[in-house]
Every structure is written in structure tokens, then in C-alpha cells.
Fold this sequence. Notes:
The chain is of the alpha+beta class. The chain folds into two domains: 4-295, Jelly Rolls, CATH 2.60.120; 306-382, Endonuclease I-creI (Roll), CATH 3.10.28. The protein is 15% helix and 29% strand. Strands 3, 5, 7, 8, 9, 10, 11, 13, 14, 16 and 17 form an eleven-stranded mixed beta sheet that branches. A hairpin with a 7-residue loop joins strand 21 and strand 22 (373-379). Helix 5 (325-341) crosses helix 6. The model has no long low-confidence stretch (mean pLDDT 95). The structure holds zinc ion (ZN). Zinc ion binds at residues 48, 154, 251, 253, 266, 268.
Amino acid sequence: MTKTIISVDLNKKATEQPFPLHNRWHPDIPAVVMVDPGETFRIECLDWTGGQVSNNDDATDIKNLDLKQVHYLSGPVAVRETEPGDLLVVDIIDIGPLPGNEWGYTCIFAQENGGSFLTDHFPHAAKAIWDFDGIYATSRHIPEVKFAGIPHPGLIGVAPSIDMLKRWNQRELELIKTNPKRVPPLAYPPDHESAAVGSLKGAEAERVMREGCRTVPPRENGGNTDINSFTKGSRIYFPVQVKDSLLSVGDLHFSEGDGEISFCGAIEMAGWIELKVDVIKQGAKLYNLNQPVYRPTESQQTYSNYITFEGFSVDEENKQYYMDANMSFRRACLNAIDYLKQFGYTGEQICILLSAAPVEANIKAIVDVPNACTSLAIPTEIFSFDIWPSDKRPTKHPVKRKLTVV
Ligand code: ZN
């Protein structure tokens, strides 16, 4: 049995865990444990919010969720004798929910509290609970679907150097200045409120809370990439930025569709992850790598049959955008939602389903002016009924329990 080097206690608050958690990036957050290159170990994680979401039918916890607390990360784990210029090799050995806690959630955040990719179509908070049965997920809030999860960490990364941290803060503050009042904001600056900085205390903790970057976006250290390929059997190479690497992980997902469109769009869970670490000395320098690269798992894909929606860079009012892949993917999502509504689902149910199920997003062509062409592919086998077009009217399936929207 692999040894657990960091454990969590679901009965305790995020701020009272046996191993202190952190929710900011900063090189001065102390390591909680040290491992050797070549070692395999298990780390337990709270869900990304630190236990703010309950297993019930009411989305009020999502409407009122304190986003300044996210993401609670386990670590940092120091990897002995690694240094800047090295490549830290991280193998994802396995991931799962904590025993006795086999459930997760997917949410749409309210426009005034985080928003989402389709926030102007779905401005209110909504929540679906998923139950896990082995590899499968089902939801009492989205009937007639069942799919195999691809568990992965939404967030895994190494500590930035002080210089890197300064560069992040500089560029993100410049962006915020272009529209400081925007809702939701263009980016999130360092924020002292609700900051957790591990075992630091006193003036040192205060300084790190003021300087530490929020964990919201992915950056050159990895971080919140939300890449669903980081599943069992995958490998990530991180350019090391500081002595001993300082690896942190959290935001475990049971499943996630490409794009994670509803923002809290994966199936979020508390859980465990087994990692193996190794080092390629001066590998980042040798290969001129300035951010992580990865190798997806070689294990087989689960689904083979996809109904695939296309998107072009034209908005809902017929306004033409020039080669805008973001607008194009937005339209692919909205096209899928319009179609699936014909089977009796609400828009919120489909938005959440497209976020959580193993859907695939692709850029198909980015040269045919003025339209970027993207696609959104939904595995048809996840539905208990036939969703292909035919000469019959689509069957409205009874929606046993609707999502609450608050
Ligand atoms: Zn997540």
C-alpha cells in the first residue's frame, strides 16, 4: 500500500486540517513534507472550495460561495535536490474519491459571483449532485445520463520563483486596469482576504498573503489548467522554478468535459491522488521548456460515437467576428444546448452536463476568413435514449427532478 504523506479530515474546516493547506501561489509557503526522486506517494485533498458545497438539492451554497477561498491545495511537497532548470517528472498513478464520500458536484456560478463561459445565457446559480458507482457517474438532477469518469487533478503545479510571481502580477494588473469594474472581473489580483498560506504565521504570513497570486488561471508553473488528460497513466513534465520544486495539487475532478464551460464545470470531489516523482537534471534548460508539457495516458478511450456540433465566429445577433475561436466555441455550445433541449432538459441541465461529461472540443480550422471553426463532440452512449436526428419528433423524456436555480 502506497504511503499517504498528506491526509485531510472531512469533519474539520479547511483552515483546521492536520496538514495546513494553501490557496495562493508563493515560493515562501513552506513545504509540509519532503520526498525523494523515484518515490511514489498518496496525497489527500479537500474539494476545491474546502467543503463549502453540500450534498443537497439547494443551490444557495453556490450563490453565496466565498470564491476568495479557492483553490485549497495540498502541499507543497518538496522533492529533494531538485533545482531551477530541472524538469520535475510527475506520473499520475491513480485518483479516486475518499472512501465513504463517493459523490461530487457540478455548478453554474451566478454572474455576480464568478459567472461562467455562457453567463449571459445562464446568469443564476445552479447545482447538480453526482453519485459515483465504481467508474460511473449518475445524477438525480440530470436524469437518463450515465458516463464513465476520467478522474484527474484540475490543479497541479510547482511554486513560481519570486521573479515569475512578479511577472504574473504585473501582466494581470495591467489587464484589470483596462476595465476595473467589469462583472465578472477580467482577472483576480492578490487578495489578503480568505488567503491560506500553509504553516506561515505573523508578519511573514501577512506578506505572503499580500503578494501571493490567486490560483484561478493556469500559468507557466502549471496550476489550474483543468486538463482532463491528466488521468491515471499520464505524465507531466514541470520546469522547476525554485529549490526542491514545491509541488502542490488539488481541485480533484471525477470527470470534466473539454472547456469546463459552466466554470465549476467538472465533477468536483474531495479525494486522493497517487503520484510518482522523478527528475531530469537541467531538463528544462536542455529542451528550452518554459512551461509544462505532458503525455496523455495510453489507456483506451471509453466512447466511440459522438454527435458533434460546429461553431463559427458569428454571435447570436448575427454579428461577424474575425477568426474568434472563443466566439466560435461559444456558438458550438449554444447549438448543442438548443438541440438537447428538444429532449426535455432545461438549459441549465445541459450546460452542466456539457461541463461534466467527457465531451471533446477541437479547433477544426483557423484559416478560413472570417470564421474560425470549432467543434463540440458529445458521446451519444451516455444517454439512455437515441439522440440522433430522425424523421420522428424528438421524445421529451420525463425530467424527474429539475435543477434548482437561485
Ligand atoms: Zn475544479
